[in-house]
Amino acid sequence: MIRMIVKVDGMACSMCEAHVNEAIRKAVPVKKVTSSHKKGETQLILENPVDEQAIKQAIESIGYRVISVESGPYEKKRFRLFG
Fold it and tell me: What does the pLDDT look like over 7-66, one tens digit per residue?
């Protein structure tokens, strides 16, 4: 699994977050996508690598600006009851 963090400029509210999330879902197959206008970023969890340009184009086509994209391996956090 892969985790991508996309820094996005122009999100001002929760509706902006929803627009960005929807645009990404339409552009690439994602397991999970969440945005935060306060942090100015969108996080994606992906099964397989995707074209960063497709993500950038999807976000910019709805009026926001992509500042940076970083990706790396994603490890699901495990719940531990003891220890």
Answer: 999 999 999 999 999 999 999 999 999 999 999 999 999 999 999 999 999 999 999 999
Q: Which residues are within 8 A (CB) of 66 and not within 5 positions of it... i.e. 6 or more apart?
A: 6, 7, 8, 9, 55, 56, 59, 60
Q: What is the pTM of this model?
A: 0.87
At residue 70, φ and ψ (nearest 5 deg) are: -130, 145
Between CA 12 and CA 67 the distance in angstroms is 15
Task: For helices 14-27 and 52-60, give the axis angle rounded to 10 degrees.
Answer: 140
Q: How many domains does the chain have?
A: 1
In a domain, 79, yes or no: no
Q: What is the CATH number of the domain that holds 25?
A: 3.30.70.100
